[in-house]
Amino acid sequence: MDSILVTGNGPLNGQIPIAGAKNACLTLMPATLLSDAPLTLTNAPRLSDIKTMTTLLQSLGVEVTSLQEGQVLALSSHNLTNHVADYDIVRKMRASILVLGPMLARDGHAVVSLPGGCAIGARPVDLHLKALEALGADLELKEGYVHAKAVGGLKGGTVEFPFVSVGATENAVMAATLAKGTTIIKNAAREPEIVDLVHCLQKMGAQITGEGTSTLEIQGVDRLDGATHPVVTDRIELGTYMLAPAICGGEVECLGGRIGLVKSFCEKLDAAGVSVEETKAGLKVARKNGRVRAVDVVTEPFPGFPTDLQAQMMALMCTAQGTSVLEEKIFENRFMHAPELMRMGAEIDVHGGTATVTGVERLKGAPVMATDLRASVSLILAGLAAEGETLVNRVYHLDRGYERVEEKLGHVGAKIERVQGE
Fold first, then answer.
1. Residue 395 in contact with residue 401, Cβ under 8 Å?
2. Which of 134, 183, 191, 207 could form a disulfide with 156 if both were Cys (CB 3.0 to 4.6 A apart)?
3. Which residues are CB-neighbours of 66 under 8 A, at least 6 positions away?
C-alpha cells in the first residue's frame, strides 16, 4: 500500500492548476442514464472514484469513452442492458446511489445496492428513498438492495427535506426531470455542484428553476437530449491548495479558482491573517504578516464553511497563534485525523463534535495514518509545515479525491514523494 513522504521545506511559490470537481462529476455522470443521446463532460478529474463510477455505469450498459488523458468523458446510454447496480461495485463509493433516480425515471424500475464509502459517519440513504417515494416510486429493501418501481412512470410532487442533503437533492432533481407534472423540492442543497448539475440538465432540455436557492421547481418533460458540459472547478481541492501557502508561507496562485466557490472559507482565511486575491487566472494566496491567528470554525451546508475543508483547516490551526474551536455539524466521527496530528506535536482536545486546538510554534514529522480522504491531505499539509519527515500511510483514500497531489505540490517547491507499497 502506497505512502506519501513529506519533508518540511519552507515557503511555497508558483501556480497550482485546480481540477474539475469530483463531487460534481460523480453526479453528472449518472445524468447520462436520463437520455439515450450522448453526454460529453469536459474538465473531468482523473481520480479513482471516477473510475469506479465508470465501472458502475458500464455494468448497466453505458458506453463510456475516456478522451484527452481522462479529462473528457464521452457517455452514451442508448442501450441500457442491465438495471441492477451490484454490491461489489456500489460498496466502494457512496455516490453510486445516484444511479437510482435516473434509472427509475427513465425506465420505471431499478435495483441498487445500499452503498459504502468513507468511515466518517452513517450518512443513511433514507432521504433519497423518501424523495423518490414522494414522486410515486414503490420501494422495497431486500437483502441489502433497494428494489424500486414506478409503474406508469414517476409523477411530480412535493419533496421537503428535514435537513439539507446534497446527494438526496441530486437524486430527486434528476428523477423529477422526467416525472409527469411539476415537482417542488424544498430545503434543497445549494452547493455549486447542485447548480452545476442543474445547468447540465438544462442543456439537456430539463425545465428547472431556482438553482442556487433552497427551493427548486422542476417541470417534467417527456425526454432529454444530449449535451456537452464542463465540470465546475473543485472547490475542495481549491481550498486545500489555498491552505498550502497559508501553512508554509510563500505565495501560490490556484488556477481556475473563484472566491464565489469558497467565500465563507476565504472569510476565515482573512480573519486568520491570510490574503486571498482574485486574479484573471484564479486566486492568489499568501500570509499577510507572519504566523497566522487562531479562528473558530463551524461546518455548515453551503454557503457555510465546508465540512470537507475542516480537517485541512485544523492542520492550519495547529500552528496558529492562540486557541481555536472547530465544531463539526455535518458528519459525526469526523475528527479521526486529530490523534494523528497530535502524533506530530499538535495540541488538540476533542469532545464529541467539537475540537479545541491550541497552536504550537512548530509541528514535528512523524509516521501517521490516513483515516479518510480529507484526513489524508490534512496530514500532508501538516507535514509540509513540520520539522523533519512525515510519512502518511494508507493514502489510497487520497487518490479518490486528489489527482497528482505530489506533482502539484512539488511544482511549487514542496519536498514530497510517493513511496510505492509492496
1. no
2. 183
3. 54, 72, 73
In tens, the pLDDT along 15-70 reads 999 999 999 999 999 999 999 999 999 999 999 999 999 999 999 999 999 999 99
Contacting residues for 298 by C-beta, under 8 A, at least 6 apart: 304, 305, 326, 327, 329
Residue 307 to residues 195, 205, 239, 312, Cα–Cα distance (Å): 19, 33, 12, 10
Is residue 312's pLDDT more than 90?
yes
Answer whether 362's CB lies under 8 Å from 386's CB.
yes
Q: Using CA atoms, how far apart are residues 265 and 313, in angstroms rounded to an integer?
A: 9
Return the C-alpha cell found at 299.
461546518
CA distance 144 to 287: 50
Tell me how far the alpha carbon of residue 134 is from its chain's centroid: 27
CA distance 198 to 321: 42
* pLDDT beyond 90 at 120: no
Report field, pTM of the whole predicted structure over 0.70: yes
Distance separating alpha carbons of residues 397 and 118, to the nearest angstrom: 8
Burial of 280 (C-beta count, 10 Å sphere; 0-12/13-18/19+): exposed
Which of helix, strand or coil describes residue 259? Answer: helix
Q: Which residues neighbour 418 within 8 Å (Cβ) at sequence distance 6 or greater? A: 2, 3, 4, 5, 395, 406
Q: What is the pLDDT of residue 124?
A: 66
Are 371 and 340 a contacting pair, CB within 8 Å? yes
Known catalytic residues are: 118
**Which is it for strands 145-149 and 158-160: parallel, antiparallel or unpaired?**
unpaired
390 is written with which cell numbers?
A: 512525515
Contacts of 124 (CB under 8 A, 6+ apart): none
Q: How far is CA 24 from CA 49, 111, 207, 243, 340, in A?
A: 12, 23, 20, 22, 30
- Report which DSSP code applies to 69: G
Q: Return the SS3 of 363.
A: coil
CA atoms of 58 and 33, how far apart (whole Å)? 11
Q: Which residue has better confidence, 387 or 93?
A: 387
What distance in Å separates the CA atoms of residue 143 and residue 216, rounded to the nearest whole number?
34
Contact in structure between 45 and 19 (CB atoms under 8 Å): yes
| Cβ neighbours around 64 below 10 Å, total | 19
